[in-house]
Amino acid sequence: MELVYTKHNLVEQNLLSTNADDISNELDWFESVLQMRSAINAGSASPNANIFTLTPPDLSKRKSSFAQFIKEHDLKFEDRFLLFMSMVPQIKPECLDIFLVQNQRTGQIYTEFGGRRGKIFNGFLPTAETFLFVLAGGNLQKRFELLQIFDARHPLFSLNILDADVPEPGDPITSLPLQINKNWFELFTTGEESTPRFNNEFPAQKLSTLLQWEDLILPSQTSEQLNQIETWLQHHTVLMEEWGMRGRLKPGFRALFHGLPGTGKSLAATLLGNRFGKSVYRIDLSKVVSKYIGETEKNLAKVFDRAENRGWILFFDEADALFGKRTQVSSSNDKYANQETSFLLQRVEDYNGLVILASNFKHNMDDAFIRRFQSVVDFSLPGPAERLLIWEKGFSEKAVLEDKMDLKEIAVRHEISGGVIMNVIQYSSLQALKRGDGIIRNRDIINGIKFELRKSGRTL
Fold it and tell me: Is residue 242's pLDDT more than 60?
């Protein structure tokens, strides 16, 4: 079969080639540093040998994802070496085999090498001790200087580039494994991150829609409230950086969407993402909330840690299950539940992107959360004019409405949500297809409305 390359394919191939070239050059530099440390350790290097005379490649004019990151964060010799050491097990693991030599006296690899083995991977996996050994050797002053890199404020950790697992109790901080975050590794090597898979490690699903912003028909008051969120999405970077408001304002934006089911909360969140080129993830609360102490916080942390600094919009549907009112303390369980709510509030406040909590009823939400929302958007039922627009725009262009159909009368008489209207449109359209005439009949719409009302115990 002939392989046809589109313009997109060619751009993608060029980016992969550029990334590969720059990482290959970085690898050559990395290996030269390892070889010098090996020579110094074996006593075969010249007396004046200095690791830091081995200059890393000049990437200032390169366009790869890796080079762009190096330039943007002005990474120095030590930073680049640490970053690349975390990548090497996935690029050229055999170059770390020099650390697998055993101490003849103990029968183990030398303590100063650090390192560990994976559960399946049998090669050498570097730790912070490995990094310190290569760059500092026995120089204690240099070792102490290099330890400062492992501060949480360093870009490699503040941006979650390196997965910083906490060492086991009693283990030294230098036993910290050096492993690069999967998404950042993909960005440096392929130029883009893959969409995270929905599982227990990431209990969130990406939302998407083929609809456009003009397809979202809302009461004017609701649209005005959404404008505040649009303004933040458009200008928050300028506000924080150019206006110098970082440190004075919380980093992200928090909004509450409240209203009955079918009034457009999920669609509005998805369309906000589409409009500003941001991924929207709906958190699956069934995989987050746990009856076991500490598990809910742990599950939620997985989502926030993965989303941090990526600009994702996090959407918590039926959020009162997770962020509901705190209770009066009458037992240890109540005390823990309140502590859990406080933790969730803190994580939401610390997130540097947009968090949307959706609830059917505003009064179900904890007051402490509501006070911290920058925007509270009321998704009320659409009025007659909005309902008529939804009816008129909802049908397929191939559908034919019965002559006696009066959509305006239907819109005025039946006070239902946009979601319910679309369910009725689907029902009546299927009936038209079943008959084979393609005609939407008035009785089909009335029957569809009856079926929808019965779901909530109502009658026509």
Answer: yes
